């Protein structure tokens, strides 16, 4: 983080005072030498009173001009230094604000993960009492199986978040992950949530969408985008999810049929604790998503104007050569 050099106030004041004394002394000596030299030179030349007055006037004009140039140079130098210090101070303030936001987000994330893991443990225990009653109903058994799988993944992710918030290495190593498969699983896991909002989710994925990362974190990022999209689409809406790859990157797009995001908020919505949902949001989801994706060398951005809002997640492909092409 850029920072200004730490200089004690007393040393700065003393330096400024010594510098001012040197400038004043140098200016006084130069002015005195100029006056004496010019007077002696004029005195040695025989001039009538009219010419003498003209020479003195020119001397005064020259003295004022030289003085103005000297002062202008000093002011310009100090003003340029002041502008540089101001820019450095602004950069330091911006970096400090970002660091404070990141630190606050880390603490909040750790606290949320801790409470979430405890609640998930209780939910898994309660689920064990419900499962026997649903064994005769295939639909209910399938729904409960999805719930158990979701609870298990969320517990793993909460544990991983707690480790990262505490600056400890994650217990889940990074590996090659099929982002298309992550998208399919996330769509399946949010199907009940989407059904409750009367929202349809359309999925279109390509093959060879392999990226390098932790599956738990990638699922969290995609789930955040999906949940936001379903919430924005609300009643009888539609969410489109696609996953494809270019030569170097894998792109995952989530588009909703909601009101969209104003262009002036395109970057601000990724700031921690900024939300357009009012009391229904906390401003953490997109910030966490971008942080996770950027930790793998990718990014998340809001695409161009609507209809609706489209978030595009970009990650480096694990292999640079698409299938079927020569290396």
Shape: elongated
Element-level helix/strand string:
HHHEHHEEHEEHEE
Helix content: 55-70%
- Given helix and strand content, the structural type is alpha+beta
Question: Based on DSSP secondary structure assignment, what is the total number of beta strands?
Answer: 7
DSSP helix count? 7
Q: Please tell me the overall pLDDT.
A: 75
Given as residue ranges, the uncertain stretches (5+ residues, pLDDT < 50) are: 1-7, 323-327
Computed CA radius of gyration, to the nearest angstrom: 34 Å
Specify the biggest β-sheet. Answer: 5 strands, mixed
Q: How much strand content do the residues show?
A: 5-15%
Strand order of the largest sheet: 2-4-5-7-6
**What separation lies between the terminal Cα atoms?**
40 Å
């Amino acid at each position: 983080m850029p920072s200004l050099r730490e200089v004690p106030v007393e040393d700065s004041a003393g330096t400024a005072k010594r510098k001012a004394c040197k400038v004043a002394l140098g200016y006084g000596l130069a002015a005195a030498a100029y006056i004496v030299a010019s007077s002696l030179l004029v005195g040695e030349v025989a001039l009538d009173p009219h010419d003498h007055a003209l020479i003195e006037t020119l001397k005064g004009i020259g003295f004022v001009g030289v003085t103005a140039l000297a002062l202008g140079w000093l002011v310009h130098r100090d003003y340029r230094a002041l502008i540089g210090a101001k820019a450095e101070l602004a950069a330091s303030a911006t970096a400090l604000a970002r660091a404070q936001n990141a630190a606050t987000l880390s603490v909040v994330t750790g606290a949320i993960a801790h409470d979430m893991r405890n609640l998930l443990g209780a939910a898994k225990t309660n689920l064990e009492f419900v499962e026997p009653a649903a064994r005769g109903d295939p639909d209910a058994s399938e729904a409960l199986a999805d719930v158990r799988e979701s609870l298990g993944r969320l517990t793993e992710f909460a544990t991983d978040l707690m480790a990262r918030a505490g600056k400890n290495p994650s217990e889940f190593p990074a590996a090659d992950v099929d982002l298309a498969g992550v998208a399919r699983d996330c769509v399946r896991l949010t199907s009940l949530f989407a059904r409750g909002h009367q929202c349809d989710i359309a999925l279109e994925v390509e093959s060879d969408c392999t990226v390098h990362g932790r599956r738990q974190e990638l699922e969290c990022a995609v789930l955040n985008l999906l949940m936001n999209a379903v919430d924005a689409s609300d009643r009888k809406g539609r969410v489109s999810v696609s996953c494809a790859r270019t030569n170097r990157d894998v792109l995952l797009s989530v588009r909703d049929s909601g009101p969209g995001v104003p262009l002036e908020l395109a970057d601000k919505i990724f700031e921690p604790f900024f939300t357009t949902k009012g009391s229904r949001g906390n401003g953490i989801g997109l910030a966490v998503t971008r942080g996770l994706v950027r930790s793998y060398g990718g990014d998340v951005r809001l695409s161009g104007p609507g209809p609706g809002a489209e978030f595009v997640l970009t990650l480096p492909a694990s292999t640079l050569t698409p299938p079927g092409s020569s290396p």
